[in-house]
């Protein structure tokens, strides 16, 4: 049996058996979901992409990330149309997912019983459960099926708890309440559908760290996320390194092209089409004159990329 069939069988068995017994997906299930990732993992099984890459991701524009993912066959990783706590900031991080559904008492009872077995707080609302397990660098991503009125997943109290645990923010296909209080949380940000003074009711948590849908995007636990005023992109962890350096080189190509157009060395048509060998050599020479401190990547990373993509 080949690797692809083994992974498929594992997913089927977990989804039909083990997975159904948990509120939060077990590490084995998350590892099967993200089997292309070969690096370090968090204790819960999610890929642990590096903080350094997440920092570099902040400088990548949404269109570049979207285009790279489409070139790799990932056509359903972007969602737009958000409101933001602070619309002048960029957020990146590792995704922790949660799914909410309209309340069904018999199902909710099962979830709460299982939550107790998993040592979760059964006194308060279950919407605190994902927040309780956030780790530094996490982004809390929740499918609240777009509900705003009576679908406000957090107010300022839970917002403070999110930031205290993750030092990051949230992305909710749902509503929030007490937006004025959320704005006051220093270095905190969030993407949401709307704000409303109502509190969460007739809604229930159904899973943590399982695959979810956010608008037109599919999201897996451990994805990297890039979020800014232009939208949100969810990036499979195993593609993050390639996406970052590819986008960084594209930005350097743009800088080179803009400079050469201002100098009138090339026409717009020459820059906008596939480059000739002479322009590619000029670009490599131009890169060699840039100070290392001005490059977003190390010189070795850049040279390795140029060799791999036949610039050198």
From TrEMBL:
* Annotated signal peptide: 1-20
Q: What is this protein called?
A: RraA family protein
Among InterPro entries, the record links this protein to: RraA/RraA-like, RraA/RraA-like_sf
Instruction: Identify the residues that bind Mg(2+).
Output: 178
Organism taxonomic ancestry: Bacteria, Pseudomonadati, Bacteroidota, Flavobacteriia, Flavobacteriales
Keyword annotations for this protein, in alphabetical order, are: Magnesium, Metal-binding, Signal
Q: Which residues bind substrate?
A: 155-158, 177
Looking at the UniProt entry, the stretches that span the membrane are none
Q: Which cofactor does it need?
A: Mg(2+)
Q: Which species is listed as the source?
A: Sinomicrobium pectinilyticum
- Any one Gene Ontology molecular-function term assigned to this protein's record: metal ion binding
Q: Which SUPFAM superfamilies match?
A: RraA-like
């Amino acid at each position: 049996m080949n690797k692809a069939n083994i992974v498929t069988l594992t997913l089927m068995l977990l989804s039909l058996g083990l997975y159904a017994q948990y509120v939060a997906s077990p590490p084995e299930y998350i590892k099967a979901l993200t089997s292309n990732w070969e690096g370090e993992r968090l204790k819960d099984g999610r890929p642990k992409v590096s903080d350094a890459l997440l920092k570099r991701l902040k400088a990548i524009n949404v269109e570049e990330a979207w285009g790279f993912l489409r070139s790799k066959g990932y056509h359903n990783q972007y969602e737009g149309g958000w409101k933001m706590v602070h619309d002048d900031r960029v957020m990146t991080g590792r995704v922790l997912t949660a799914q909410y559904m309209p309340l069904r008492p018999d199902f909710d009872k099962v979830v709460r019983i299982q939550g107790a077995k998993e040592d979760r707080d059964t006194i308060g609302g279950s919407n605190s459960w994902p927040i309780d397990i956030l780790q530094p660098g996490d982004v809390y991503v929740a499918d609240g099926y777009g509900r705003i009125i009576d679908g406000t997943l957090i107010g300022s109290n839970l917002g403070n708890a999110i930031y205290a645990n993750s030092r990051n923010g949230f992305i909710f296909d749902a509503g929030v309440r007490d937006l004025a209080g959320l704005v006051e949380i220093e270095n905190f940000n969030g993407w949401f559908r709307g704000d409303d003074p109502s509190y969460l009711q007739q809604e229930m948590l159904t899973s943590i760290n399982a695959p979810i849908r956010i608008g037109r995007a599919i999201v897996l636990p451990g994805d990297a996320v890039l979020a800014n005023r232009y939208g949100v992109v969810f990036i499979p962890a195993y593609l993050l390194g390639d996406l970052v350096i590819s986008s960084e080189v594209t930005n350097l190509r743009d800088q080179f092209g803009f400079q050469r157009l201002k100098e009138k060395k090339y026409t717009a048509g020459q820059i906008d089409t596939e480059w000739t060998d002479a322009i590619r050599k000029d670009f490599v020479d131009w890169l060699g004159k840039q100070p290392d401190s001005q490059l977003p990547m190390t010189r070795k990373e850049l040279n390795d990329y140029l060799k791999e993509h036949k610039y050198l």
